[in-house]
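In response to reviewer comment 3 from the previous cycle, which asked for concrete evidence that the modeling workflow produces usable outputs, we include below a single protein chain processed end to end. The sequence was submitted unchanged, and the resulting structure tokens are shown without manual editing.
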Amino acid sequence: MRNTFDFHLPTIIKFASGLLEDAGIHVRRITEGRNVLVITDPGIRKAGISTQVEKSLEKHGANINVFERVEPNPKDSDCEEGSEIARRLGANIIVAVGGGSVIDSAKAIALLQNREGPLTSYAGQGIDEGEVTPMVAIPTTAGTGSEVTRSAVITDTRRKIKMTLKDIRLAPKLALVDPETTYSLPPHLTATTGMDALVHAIEAYTCRQANPLSDSLALAAIEKIYPALPAAVHQETDTKARDALMAGSLMAGIAFSHADVGAVHCIAEAIGSLYDTPHGAANSMFLPVITAFNAGYDPQRHARIARACGLDTSGMTDDQSSRLLVNELERLSAKINIPRFADLDQADPADFEYLAKISAANGSSPSNCRPVTKDDYLKLLKEGYNRGQ
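The workflow returned the following structure tokens.
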């Protein structure tokens, strides 16, 4: 854990049920401009969530255009197309309604609206001092926490790798967090996005960039997410569990954006870039495997996570508590029907060398609590593939 750190949260957060009805009022408080570009995806529009936001915006005087070409792993080419629409509209503000892919796409579009492309030129190189179009994020999953982070993960379609855009100006000006937007999520999406949030919290707490403020948020997130997740998956009408999951996801997002993630994300982003696997699912598949890899290296922190999950560790050493945590994560994965890596039709052991290479090259790999090499990633990929067989 670091003894020196920075903590900057530029996002105003509003958390309440029924926020969408007043979205137009809240957006008007961010800008006097009337030209609003709404970023969403076809599923969110079909569910009526985006339409509800659009009606509220129009009611309060907005001139809106809608861009919904967003895939589960957002592509640089789609973001570049969206930025052209933003320029033509002269968008004063961008409103993202959707999960992490939508919000990350909106960040990339906001960045490019006032800059020349390609988007890849801004990955890992820093962003100039020019303007970034202000953004409002309305998350519809309890998973990514992207509504409060300063980064966006986008697929470089030419190289087939995921790239990260990172700058404090990419953080939304406002996050309207309404748990009701998640009530209609199907069980499999509730499961994988909820596990994604749990990964954020666990990696934020165990990574080398952890600090006292990120620790407190990460542990509080785990305390909310772990007991709520099975209930939210299996009892769709359990609104209390869904509300807790949404709050936990929000806190986990703040935690990891002020610390970092680790090897779970490195492998998940590699799998997502090659196979187009949804990020939450890829993270979920490897959480138990990599927790087992890390737990013995830092048993004290993993034992603390076990206690945050509510596990009975009385009389146990930290090593024993850490092993209990690994077993419980396996049990949780089975209970909420997390798919296995081997269940992916595209998963091919012939690709593992390449996946290990790009996992090791990920910028968050050095943040993992236990040093991890390309050979380690190769072993972890094989373990993940053989898990449960």
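The chain has two domains: 12-182, 187-386. We consider this sufficient to address the reviewer's concern, and the full set will be provided in the supplementary archive.
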